[in-house]
Specification:
- The protein has 8 helices and 15 strands.
- By secondary structure, the chain is of the alpha/beta class.
- It folds into 2 domains: about 5-65 and about 290-309, no CATH class; about 75-280, 4-Layer Sandwich (Purple Acid Phosphatase, chain A, domain 2).
- Helix 5 links the parallel strand 2 and strand 3 (about 105).
- Helix 1 (about 5-10) crosses helix 3 (about 30-40) and helix 3 packs across helix 4.
- It binds zinc ion (ZN).
Length: about 300
């Protein structure tokens, strides 16, 4: 029996998400990825009531965070263990987080190198993992959510999942999966991505925050994150300075504003660059997810399922 079939069997016995996680010894993001594969299975493969339960669990668990107020620092593409890693930047960030009372950090992927452009000292997967665990940020007052990028995926393929290793060894770190994850800001759906083409097809996000390009670029409904390493696009530091972004969320009954402050790290240290602001009306709950029932199921089942956020 493969893992998907095992999940379906457990769900037929009405097992909860946590019980299935325990049974499979799977992290939350791993189980969500299996759920997504089950949801995308061809129609008629599983009973509608089981599918309903799986979709409902999926929707309840899919957002890793929902913040209505506060500050989130976004970093990305640290490429630790590569030739272009810069541990000094991580130290500067840690100090900045403490001085500015920032409680949340989100990493946009490519935490490590994954044996693609490694520094000679880190020429095996275990050596890289050990080095990353040594130098990666940790702060008891900081909650971190880390996305795996294409470089980090290489470790997972070698049976040493970097996200799991960081979750296990460091305080307050949660792996949110590879390439794409969802969270919410004031009930708006935000897609966190590493690579634009890795979007999940199940919902349309209100806003996208994306790693991988190594270059800060704000657009109408999307921001790409700068690198926090010396790996610059086209090898040029000019106009591609390393840096990070701080999001400040402010919400009252009428409106919610998201302010993205962009900082560079130059040879003089951290330098403030510019701000991008987005404002929208505050809604108690902006989304009802609706799935249409597949055609060939019996009509006595509910036609739609609705799950409020
Ligand atoms: Zn990268």
């Amino acid at each position: 029996m493969n893992i998907q079939q095992k999940i379906i069997e457990l769900k037929k016995q009405e097992a909860t998400f946590q019980e299935i996680q325990f049974e499979l010894d799977a992290s939350k993001y791993e189980l969500l990825a299996y759920y997504e594969a089950i949801i995308n299975m061809p129609q008629g493969m599983l009973p509608w009531d089981v599918e309903f339960q799986i979709r409902q669990d999926y929707l309840k668990k899919i957002n890793f965070l929902n913040l209505k107020e506060g500050k989130i620092i976004f970093i990305s593409d640290t490429h630790i263990s590569s030739k272009e890693e810069n541990i000094e930047y991580l130290k500067l960030i840690k100090k900045f987080i403490q001085e500015n009372n920032i409680a949340y950090l989100i990493h946009g992927g490519d935490i490590g190198d994954g044996m693609l452009n490694y520094a000679s000292k880190y020429n095996t997967y275990p050596k890289q993992i050990e080095h990353i665990l040594d130098v990666y940020l940790e702060d008891q007052n900081l909650f971190q959510y880390i996305l795996g990028g294409n470089h980090d995926r290489k470790y997972q393929k070698k049976e040493c999942d970097l996200l799991k290793a960081l979750e296990k060894e460091k305080l307050n770190i949660t792996g949110v999966g590879y390439y794409q994850a969802y969270f919410k800001i004031a009930n708006k759906i935000i897609s966190l991505q590493h690579k634009s083409n890795k979007a999940n097809k199940l919902f349309t996000p209100d806003f996208t925050i994306c790693g991988h390009t190594h270059q800060y670029f704000p657009k109408e409904k999307k921001i790409t994150l700068p690198t926090l390493s010396d790996n610059f696009p086209n090898g040029k530091r000019q106009n591609n300075e390393p840096g990070f972004v701080v999001l400040t969320i402010q919400s009252n009954q009428q409106k919610t504003s998201l302010k993205f402050d962009h900082y560079n790290i130059s040879t003089n240290g951290i330098e403030y660059q510019d701000q991008r602001q987005y404002t929208f009306p505050t809604e108690e709950c902006s989304h009802t997810y609706t799935y249409q029932k597949k055609k060939n199921y019996n009509s006595h089942h509910k036609k739609y399922m609705r799950v409020n956020c």
